[in-house]
Design a protein that fits this description.
The complex is a heterodimer of chains A (about 110) and B (about 140). By secondary structure, chain A is an alpha/beta fold. Chain A is about 35% helix and about 20% strand. The longest helix of chain A is centred in the C-terminal third of the chain and has 10 residues. Chain A is globular, with a radius of gyration of 12 Å. Chain B has a 5-stranded antiparallel beta sheet with strand order 1-2-3-5-4, covered by helices on one side. Chains A and B meet through α2 and α3 of A and α1, α2 and α5 of B.
Chain lengths: ~110, ~140
């Protein structure tokens, strides 16, 4: 499933790197705990989180995560967007909860990691 | 190849800078992606630990053709009971650290999981030294 299709499914707004949204993803992981995110070995995944700070971007950079979906219309700072652009990372914001986003993605066939 | 990075305690905005430098170097050296990712994650967790718990720290990195050796040395409160600190779920992190998405007591075990060798020494009230070694070839000792 492409990031573009995922974005449509969750009424999301792409905040940066829109040109990369035709990328396919196979897996998704939802967490606000970055140490948990750092345990994942899969590469082809999106992170769904409510943690709207630089650490979410940094952690994804370390873990080679190419797309982060921020739940509940979290405010995403410019510094976060700049760091994401530097790392060619797509940021998506959705009005829905982590539970709702996870449900939609799961229903659409995106696989869970654990 | 050797290089050094300074870490300021409490400065979350810069946590990860040393790991990013190492990531770039490993990529230039064409180190296997999976092996490089493990090194970067172990170092990042180490940096977060210094930022979260210590007053200041230094990361020394030594790279040769076979392995990378990372020494994270901090000035800080130290660790009273290393065995306990290594247990998953044990944490003394502040609410501020938890707000940053860390402090769940997974850091040290994540570091151990992602390194081929890890050694911690600590003097309470003075600081902690963490040594990490990763081999570049999966079959090397």
């Amino acid at each position: 499933m492409t990031i573009k299709e995922i974005t449509r499914l969750i009424d999301g707004k792409v905040l940066c790197c829109e040109e990369k949204t035709s990328t396919n993803v196979e897996y998704a992981f939802a967490s606000d705990l970055m140490s948990d995110v750092l345990t994942i070995e899969k590469d082809n995944m999106v992170l769904i989180t409510g943690l709207a700070n630089l650490q979410a971007i940094r952690t994804s950079e370390m873990s080679d995560i190419g797309c982060i979906i921020f739940a509940r219309d979290k405010k995403i700072g410019e510094e976060m967007i700049d760091l994401a652009i530097e790392n060619k990372m797509i940021l998506v914001r959705s009005p829905y909860s982590i539970f709702h986003i996870s449900g939609e993605l799961y229903k659409a066939g995106v696989k869970s990691i654990y | 190849m050797q290089f050094r990075h300074k870490i300021a305690g409490g400065d979350f905005a810069k946590a990860g800078n040393a790991a990013i430098s190492v990531k770039k170097v490993l990529s230039q050296l064409n180190i296997n992606h999976t092996i490089a990712k493990k090194i970067v994650i172990a170092l990042y967790e180490g940096e977060v630990n210094v930022v979260a718990h210590a007053w200041s720290g230094i990361v020394d990195v030594e790279i040769d053709e076979n392995q990378i050796r990372i020494l994270i040395t901090d000035k800080g409160p130290g660790i009273e009971d290393i065995e306990q600190a290594m247990k998953e779920g044990y944490s003394t992190a502040s609410p501020q650290v938890r707000e940053m998405g860390f402090g769940a007591g997974l850091g040290l075990s994540n570091m151990r999981k992602n390194s081929d060798f890890m050694n911690i020494t600590s003097i309470p009230g003075e600081g902690t030294v963490v040594e990490l070694i990763n081999n570049f070839r999966p079959d090397a000792g």
